[in-house]
Amino acid sequence: MHSMRTWLLLSFAAYVQLQELTGTSFLFDLTEDPRETTSLYADDDYTVIKRELKNKIKDWYGYMVDADAPDMTKVHTIWKKEGGVVPWLDKEQDAREIEQRYSYDQAPNIIMFLVDDWGYNDIGFRSTYLDFTTPNIDKLAAEGIKFDNYFSSYLCVPARAALLTGRYPLRYGMYDEEDGGELPLDECTIAEELKSAGYRTYMVGKWHVGYSSVSRTPTYRGFDYFYGFYNGFIDYWSKEYSGYLDLSEDTDLVTNADEIDDSLHSAYLFEEKAEAIIEDHYYNYNDQPFFLYYAAQLVHTDWAAPQHFIDRCAFDGSDVSGSDTYCAMNLMLDEVVANLTCTLDKYTYSNNTILIVVSDNGCVKDISGCSYPYRGNKGSTFRGGISATGFVHSKLIPESSRGKTYEGNFHVTDWLPTIMGLATNNEWTESYVGNTIDGTDMWSYIINFDDSPKSEIVHYLGPDFNYSIQYDNYKLDAGTRTNAYTYPKTEYTIDQTGESYVMCDVPSLVDDYTSAGPSIETDDSIMIHHTTKFAVLVVVTLAIISATLIHCFMRHYKSCFFFKDSKSSYQRTEKKDAKYAPVSSNDYYDVQYYSKPRSTLPGSPAGIIIGNMRDTKKNVSLSAAAAARSIPIMDTSDNEFYDSIES
User: CA-CA distances (angstroms) from residue 79 to 229, 377, 639?
Assistant: First the structure.
């Protein structure tokens, strides 16, 4: 490690000279030129600024370490033997024991919804070409606070590592993806930090920060439950990575035929699991706040969507094959977020939940215009590659701050200290294991729209002297992590159907199912079922009370509670108010909740799967699969199920 640092520092000056000669160094004045169109690197008037920025880069190289890369020789042998992607090294060690250090009775539930490869110009409210695709996301953003200068990383791995640790990836060798680096075990994740504040922690979706041994998987890194995939992507239909199934629940490979059916798009699967987590938490852990890290697969390549979403999109003037599918995946993303938030409403979590929706990096360069108006794409340190999109939504945001845009600098490392401040009422001040935190608690700056304290941001620092640093509104880029402009040729996406759904009135992620299937439990039969259960409960309760009264009068009438004085040990006390007070759905979105399916978790009560919920590549109904699991199905063919409401 130390030899690498010495070599880096000794070679720094020589590489700087080489970059200057080859024209791969750029200096931008972000105040005058936020789109990074004109480099000032060759201008002698900026010599002092260049020297200052280079000295900062040199200092940061002193903190850089090698990647923690595992031995990969046995990977395919183990995967073939186990039937899918699993940890392949026998280096298991116990998960870190987390002691609860903080207790805050008003701690909010927090959902971090991370979109994969979502460009700055891809979110509807600012998009020049996908404006019709995210009406529900736009509504949430309009009721929350949008970010205009939110920066993440140029690639998936460093972005996720920075989010999980609150630290620059250069500190633990995860600045790139090519070397197979993993999150070192001495790094403390946001899930572990939140467990020290009494949270239940859940994760759904993409891990992508190492899994060579079980010790490096999510449930050993602070998460109580994990459902998702380990690698950077999987096929949306087959759930495979490089020909191997990559879908795990906790540490076990998923083998359930319904879940790995290649007619089921993974977006539905992950959405159902997220909703099931919320339901399970409500019934089994409602005395604790929860943190859900939903690392969505959407909208990463290889693009895939059910045909009825694609039919809503068309491309005009784009020479990119698959543009209509990319558009369709944004439609899917909108419905996922819509139904997730409606699930919060259903289980009375709306008033005390903070929803964060952000992307991990810029969009892929195959889509012309996704980073407009900025230069660069995913893989670039120009702004189009590192400027992420997003917003935060919550009723905990002061009303006077909602519907506005925070224009100050905000970096992905800021989420951990910001979330911990919210979780502990600002008592949290340092990492559980004492690591240096590079992020800043930004909550007060965001809701008060104060100037950002982030004057310096290290966007990238690599071993090959590619670097990108921003300081006092100047930005220095050097090396090969740069690419060209990506301005859109035309506004090529068109809404073919004019469909528009408002929150909680989304008919589902799927086509209507009208073919005959197994016996279907209707709304009336479900009502009869619940009424019967209630009647039985009342009869049993009355029987118990009657038996108690008879016992008191016949044998020990003086010991009956109604003969006791006010100081008796039987004295009745009022029950304290529940932590989560039920709220009307109208308090949240002024619309009626639309039920969604659930996948049962261990300990969950019997669930109801809503009919017609899954559109599949082959238009195959999953009603039979649900019946096989003895899960009742509600018929949604009745038009009254979809209440007509005004946005």
Answer: 14, 33, 47
